[in-house]
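COURSE: Structural Biology Practicum
ASSIGNMENT: Worksheet 4, Part C
STUDENT ID: 0417
INSTRUCTIONS: Below are two proteins. For each, the amino acid sequence is given first, followed by its structure token string. Answer the questions at the end about the second protein only.

PROTEIN I
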Amino acid sequence: DQAPDFIIPDEFEPSVIIEAKLTEDDGTARDKATRIMRLCEMSAERERSGGRRYEVIACLAGRGFGVRREDMRQMILKTNGKIFTPKTLDRLVDCTSLRSFRTKA
């Protein structure tokens, strides 16, 4: 399987997995949506088997996602709303479990 775009803190015990994509075509958007939803399912499976669940976050942009309305609805549900766009990216840390990795000044 493909490697996620970002894994925090590491691939051995992930707490957060971020998938990011900018696409103008709906085929690429469909593929990324499928991947994001599969990562959500894998997180739930991990929890059911006694492991720690990880949070799946999507950072998305482009017309391709705009035409895939049902996929967007499913991703919003499966990620518990953890979908960010260029307009909301400034909230990425504060609105996700990434906040626990913030360094103290």
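PROTEIN II
(use this one for the questions)
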Amino acid sequence: MALVSIYGTLISLLCHSFYTGVCVYCPSLPFQLAESLVYICEICYVLIITFVKISILFFYLHIFPKRSFRIRCWAMVWFCSASCIAFIAATVFQCYPIAYSWDKTMEGRCVNFNAVSW
């Protein structure tokens, strides 16, 4: 939960306007630095959500002794882990070259991340 708090604090401090290129709460912060921190926070978000899901599944494993339920829980743990790896890969490689994610002055292209998520 501490990671969630840190993530929320970073996002609220670095919430910026993509249209003007100015950080709303901290105008002295360079736009590329804010962009790179948001990029890192996107990866942290995927990790945090996965850890929360897996911790709930481990809690279920701890309190429910039925074998069939435990097998399903372990299957979900593996599914959550695999989806975490897939979403981290999609997040890291959403733009080509990778630096284009935070530096829009260079030439590059990005995929539609909303379509990838759906």
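ANSWER KEY EXCERPT:
Q1: The beta strands are 95-96, 109-110.
Q2: The chain is about 65% helix and 5% strand.
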